Amino acid sequence: MSRVKTLKSLFKRYRRPGDIVFAWIALLISIFLLSQLMDQTAWRNGGKLFAQPRFWPAVSLVGMVAFAAFHLLGSALSERILGRWQEVWLWISSLEYAGWFIAYAFLVPYVGYLPSTIIFAVALALRAGYRKASMLGIAVLSAVTIVLLFKTILKVNLPSGLIYESLPDGLRQIMLTYF
Amino acid sequence: MENLIAGLEMLARWDVMLALLIGSIGGVIIGAIPGVGPAVAIAILLPATFSLDPIVGLTMLLGIYGSSMYGGAIPAVLINTPGTAVNALTSYDGYPMTERGEAHRAVSLAYSASFWGGIFGILCLILLSPVLALIAPMFGSREIFLAALLGIILVILAHRGQIMAAGLLAMFGIILQTVGLDAVTYTQRYTFGYSFLSSGVDLIVVVLGLFALSQALFLLTAPDSSPDAKPITGRMGAGIKELLGHKRVATVASGFGVILGMIPGTGEFTAQFMSYTYAQKTSKEPERFGKGSPEGLIASEAANNAVPGAAMIPLLALGIPGEALTAMMLSVFYVHNVIPGPQLFQNNIDLVYGLYFALIALNIIVMVFLLFSTNLLTKIIRVPTRFLGVMILLLSFVGVYSLRNSLTDCMIAAGFGVLGLILKRLNLPIVPIILGMVLGGIMEVKLRSALPRLNTPFDMIDRPIAAILFGLILLVLVLHLRTLIKEWRSYQPEEDHELHDSQTR
Fold first, then answer.
1. Complex ipTM, two decimals?
2. Contact B394 A105 (CB under 8 A)
3. Statement: the pTM of the whole predicted model exceeds 0.90
4. Are A112 and A71 contained in the same domain?
5. Is the minimum CB–CB distance between B240 and chain A shorter than 8 Å?
6. Average pLDDT over chain B, rounded to whole?
7. Among A35, A51, A82, where does a domain finish?
8. Which chain A residues are within 8 Å of B386, Cβ to Cβ?
């Protein structure tokens, strides 16, 4: 009994709810990746072991499986914390914002950097729960500042929107270059 | 001497000075806002600095790195929420002082201690540089391999209580960097037939996902809050006088910062923790620690500010980053074809001195800025957290998309953003993934280039530096085993959980 207790204290960590779910997923992914080692890496005949293209993937994946197994063991030996599935649901719900990000990236080459940044700043502010006109105004202002700073002043490599092509001549050039 | 002057000349350009000014003041503001932190800011700005001169880009990022901890002390002291993870211990003594009505004393003391630590660290390094220039050429492929291996081991072991998770994530970092076409044998590794994986997973995409996007997701999925700090009154210079009464604590704490800053994988948090423990053990009033002891505040702030300068040592001399921020800076060097390592210390020592002078200048700029604008900062930190999340999400796009205008990169970054969110929510460390990627790459390349000169495995450690490094690796492992056995045998009292919640800030 006392041995189990010390083993427990050895692997005890300051955990949060959902830890064991992460531990299982990590272990399963590690095992899957390790099982693909022969297919996904090559072995060169005659080469030294340490210079093989398979060497480092093998070392890291064996390490991953071992650490993931111990992590799971540690998690399983610790007390259960309530709220596991609520936490997992929060992880899943974060995919919505990841989706917003990808949609924003998808839209920029078509709608242009300035319009899409303003649209997304306002839409995301609304989604985040802000309803006051002042807050939405600040969102627009921040979006314009971001565009001015990165595209206009720092000339960071961002695409011009297809929509700009339909603008009148003088304005089109300015929008294509600076916004 | 002429190298020192050449270093100074590097800074005497308007664009460098402007970058330093923007970086250091921006860094203070970023550090002061709980929920942003230097890693988020550096990750976002990284691609933007690629188009600048190396010295301009580096001084701007260095400015953010070196000054964020000054700003982080403000919310730590005033609202008990550290602005950056490394200001955690500052809140231990800073906030009780605020509750006693000594907010002004605590803030000015924190600034002064930070300044002391910052300057002490850089002076040590300037004095140390000639020695490093002598030692650096002794590092060949096998020594750098062993140093990187030591770094990986230290990163894993430094995460006490989470070693298995840190190991898992470090190994994940190593496998990530192997994905794609192997540069030597031209064989595919873990591409699963997808062409977009052939060129590998870009470090900056991973960094932006794990640090910036994950923070946006973290803030957006949590309830909204708006930190409320009260303005403070009084002369900010008073702390300097009080600090001079605690020179010993400040100097020893800075010393810890320098030593631990140089060792990869340990960094600010360990330095702060060790110097705090030292200050408490040697104090005449140890019972006041945690209840508003000025010595505790000095110990933690002096230690964490001595780290940035020291962390540049392994980065510049060996090309080995010790933590996430220096790992990000390494990519700036690579983009500009300046390869940090022994040659840099031999041939470009002026650049090294230039960076040190930039560090001195930024400490002075920040100190002057803070003496006059602390109350302005207490207003800035009131940004609602979800709004901050929206802004970080929009800014992350600039970072990811500007790399190569690729939607696939954005999708990969979004994936890593979700992974980062999960790790943050679970209070698991993110840094091992980044260091695994960088150090894993270094280990693979250096081991390969060392192989032709090795006939037996013992040739790996037949040179003095290699033997010392190997000895250190063994020592670290043996010490760790010893601690494990000690823990096995003795009962561990409950520790303060809050202290370990370093990933959520």
1. 0.91
2. no
3. no
4. no
5. no
6. 84
7. A82
8. 128-130
